[in-house]
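ARCHIVE RECORD
Type: protein–small molecule complex
Small molecule: iron/sulfur cluster
Source of inputs: curated submission
Record status: active
Notes field left blank by submitter.
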Amino acid sequence: MTPVEPVAMAVGPRFTALPPLSLYVHIPWCVRKCPYCDFNSHEARGDVPQQEYVGALLADLEMALPRIWGRKVHTIFIGGGTPSLFDAPAIDALLSGIRARVPVVPDAEVTLEANPGTFERQRFAGFYAAGVNRLSLGIQSFAPHQLEALGRIHDADEARRAAESALMIFGNVNLDLMYALPRQTPDDALSDVAAAIGFGAPHLSFYQLTLEPNTLFHRNPPPVPDDDAAADIEDAVHGALANAGYVRYETSAFARAGRQSRHNVNYWRFGDYLGIGAGAHSKISFADRVERELRWKQPAQYLREVAAGAPVQEQSRVAREDIGFEFMLNALRLTDGVPSSLFAERTGYPLAIAARGIAEATRRGLLDADPAWLRPTPLGRRFLTDLQALFLPATRATPKTRITVHAAP
Ligand SMILES: C[S@@+](CC[C@H](N)C(=O)[O-])C[C@H]1O[C@@H](n2cnc3c(N)ncnc32)[C@H](O)[C@@H]1O
Ligand code: SF4
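STRUCTURE (tokenized, with ligand):
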């Protein structure tokens, strides 16, 4: 019998079917940079070059086509930055251009992120007519003094009007809020929760405010609650949301039955995504490898590089020793976790490569002992970063992939 080539056995993942594919589109401008925000967003000085940018996005997509050939796009997420800075004809041109270039499934979820400071009824209606069927609105808080402390460009009335119109036009709406805000008490946070619930949006996101490096708040920190006070606020927020029938299906995401974000769930289940636009990240699987890409971050440079035919700044292959951690980084954010079989399906490697981490996490009470599921325990959810870190390769103490609270790449 001829022995199997040892090299062929040792290298690379093996996929029988590729993961579902999502498309992320990054719009990198905002009216003003918020002091807590470390997203790739840049203050728009004067008019943003909408037409030129949409042209560049479509050229970027066209150059990426050979890498996703024959694959259907299941969800589209237009994020930022502030995509609602663009007018409806620009979003229409973008979505029509995407549909002309890649097969988008007929019932695809198409989300657009909006800031209440850019709200006009007509514009929202135009987004809907262009094919956006889910709106994600950055509210942050309904308390006027908090909106001011957060440097937001909108007041509480604008936030309310934008939420009302979004619900009327789209129905399928997410409201983003943050807690553990400067000097916030549990009662203050509960007022925000009550206001958010009052709109009846099917999806709410509650993020703990984090002081990210390279932000104004990091250099000049506001008086945010300490860890214990923040944990009390979090308990109050989560309790009130549960009482109102919102299920916490991910670290920061709460939804009514069947109204989870399909796009974000695809990230968390270690699906594939092509990210186009300035600074967008991609993860694309092939029969024998998984690759990551990062596009040029600065809008002006991105536009130049697209014109020169080279939008991708970095491309790398995900190594065997990293992929277990990367999978767990996403999957363990889901409250119900994932079936154990998904590991091999989405990484191309047997679950045995994560056995050491699984055993240790189970021993510490961070992961359920059920062999059929990878599910964090309540303790594992509270200490999620510690749980995820157990899957880091033994050779690396600190993660190469940053652990972030947000899923949108
Ligand atoms: C990329 S932003 C898009 C929304 C839109 N640009 C806006 O702010 O209205 C997505 C969400 O991330 C959250 N976020 C941003 N920076 C954060 C931070 N430092 N800590 C916690 N949440 C943050 C906010 O809730 C924000 O709405
Ligand atoms: S939080 Fe939203 S509006 Fe503020 S700078 Fe970041 S992306 Fe722009």
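CURATOR ANNOTATION: Residues 227-243 form the longest helix (17 residues).
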